[in-house]
Design goal:
Layout (H helix, E strand, L loop, with lengths): L1 H18 L12 H8 L3 E15 L4 E4 L4 E11 L3 E4 L1 H8 L3 H15 L1 H7 L8 H15 L4 E12 L2 E11 L15 E5 L21 E6 L2 H4 L13 E12 L5 E5 L11 E3 L5 E10 L7 E10 H8 L11 H14 L3 H14 L4 H15 L8 H27 L5 H9 L5 E4 L3 H6 L8 E2 L2 H6 L12 E4 L2
Parallel strand pairs: 14-15, 14-16
Antiparallel strand pairs: 1-2, 1-3, 1-5, 3-4, 4-7, 5-6, 6-7, 8-9, 8-11, 9-10, 10-13, 11-12, 12-13
Helix pairs in contact: 1-12, 9-10, 10-11
Length: 480
């Protein structure tokens, strides 16, 4: 009787253990939303800017012209809360090692702006009136003025955060992969920047050696189309966008360096952005996209490439970057997100307010703080607690089975089967058999048990039974 009851209890406990959440000691599984919210505040817009002051002579003496600055935008992310961040080498390249074509471009823009209108006026033309004559005049002016032009470049790299536009210094640089087949300028396409402000959110690095084809990947960055969108406000410059995909291949670049192929969409401006996994850690850095053949060169989506996080670790080796550094922002932000997704709205508000003090005006923090406050005021209706009802019903059932077992055990604890009597006889332990059936049962079924001693229950109750038994032998009572 004990074994079947134990099986019922064990089965009920196994059901409950399967339904219960993971223990506190086990690794907590993040939702995709929480993982991405962990990562987004650490991602920033990177701007490589080259301003120029051009000295030229259109025929009336030297003059200085400031053409529009050249700007290249990309994405970066903080790897150390002390102001260290990673981006692509090609994002900062125009400001770090300004190419000759950019110098020529700025000179031509200055000459066209300062000298061409005067020449067209002398020809009796207005801009756009006769494109062919205007183009011929422009070529002539450039041929005459460009040889004496002096260009003074003022390059700089900036990071746009919720704290404003911060000047960054390139601390380490590796050029992009060469497209002409030469290995002289070919590198890992990485740059390590430093801004003079600390206590930033930071993104931890994953182990890219464990990345497998089919793993989910989320690219976070600032596509150029978002920054120039006429329907978006300026918050788009500090709030990164997310595109989703998966690892679709493990390839190698021209230098035989490993790169991760992904089908997650990307665009100009995403360069240098982190590709995070389901834990919100960086598996790779977007380095280059694929272009369709032809003069247009449109981006071929689904064929983009990442620098593995292991290469980033190798790149920052020997620098002051501390990958184990603790971010105060991360601590408060992660705890706030955990409280929010655990429906602890008040706890989330407290943590988000702490986060907002550490990094004011961060869009994700502001949005989550507003949502948490709204939920404190107007909490959503809670679903019927089926889980706890199931636990209660299970324990009540287990208690009922336990009571039945105890009562049955109490009633049958001295009972033996006829087979046990036979076994005693075969073993030479001849029992004393008492026929203790009630009188009416005995008279209705006068079955005689050979060798038994008749003892009516009425005699026991009245105290008239004068029975002497051999106490050295087992005594078995046969009742109704």
């Amino acid at each position: 009787m004990i074994l079947p009851f134990c099986r019922r209890v064990v089965g009920a406990l196994l059901v409950l253990m399967a339904a219960l959440p993971a223990s506190a000691g086990a690794e907590r599984t993040l939702t995709v939303q929480e993982a991405l919210l962990r990562a987004q505040p650490a991602v920033v817009l990177v701007v490589a800017e080259v301003a120029a002051e051009v000295t030229l002579d259109c025929g009336s003496g030297p003059t200085k012209v400031t053409p529009p600055a050249f700007r290249e935008t990309g994405t970066g992310w903080f790897i150390d809360p002390a102001g260290w961040l990673i981006t692509n080498g090609h994002v900062v390249q125009p400001a770090y090692e300004t190419p000759r074509w950019l110098v020529n471009q700025q000179a031509q823009r200055a000459v066209s702006t300062a000298c061409l209108p005067r020449v067209l006026k002398g020809m009796g033309l207005q801009s756009g009136e006769n494109p062919n004559l205007e183009e011929a005049a422009k070529r002539k002016v450039l041929d005459q003025v460009l040889p004496t032009v002096k260009v003074n470049l003022q390059p700089g790299v900036f990071v746009v955060t919720s704290r404003g536009r911060l000047k960054a210094e390139v601390k380490k640089y590796s050029p992009p992969v060469a497209t002409d087949g030469s290995g002289e300028m070919s590198g890992r396409d990485l740059a390590l920047l430093r801004v003079p402000v600390e206590h930033f959110p930071a993104l931890p690095l994953a182990d890219s050696r464990t990345v497998q084809i089919g793993d989910p990947i989320h690219i976070i960055g600032f596509p150029g189309v978002v920054l120039s969108h006429e329907l978006l406000n300026k918050s788009a410059m500090v709030q990164a966008s997310v595109t989703n995909g998966a690892v679709s291949g493990i390839q190698r670049d021209k230098n035989n360096n490993p790169v991760i192929q992904t089908d997650a969409p990307a665009a100009w401006g995403n360069s240098g952005g982190p590709a995070v996994d389901e834990k919100g850690t960086v598996a790779g850095v977007l380095t280059f996209v694929s272009l369709a053949p032809g003069p247009e060169g449109s981006i071929v989506q689904g064929f983009n490439f990442l620098i593995p996080s292991q290469a980033v670790k190798d790149f920052i080796a020997g620098t002051p970057v501390d990958l184990a550094a603790t971010s105060k922002f991360n601590e408060a932000w992660y705890l706030g997100l955990r409280a929010f997704f655990s429906e602890d709205w008040k706890g989330a508000v407290r943590r988000f307010e702490e986060t907002d003090k550490l990094l004011p005006n961060q869009p994700d923090v502001k949005r989550m703080l507003t949502q948490a406050r709204d939920l404190v005021k107007n909490p959503p209706p809670r679903p019927f607690p089926w889980f706890w009802v199931a636990i209660g019903v299970t324990f009540l059932s287990a208690g009922g089975y336990g009571a039945q077992f105890f009562l049955r055990w109490q009633r049958n604890r001295y009972r033996i089967d006829p087979s046990d009597v036979v076994r005693l006889i075969e073993e030479g332990k001849q029992p004393v058999i008492l026929d203790t059936r009630k009188a009416e049962s005995y008279e209705a079924m006068p079955i005689k048990i050979p060798g038994s001693v008749r003892l009516a229950p009425e005699e026991l109750e009245s105290g008239k039974a004068g029975l002497e038994l051999d106490t050295t032998r087992p005594v078995v009572a046969y009742c109704t």
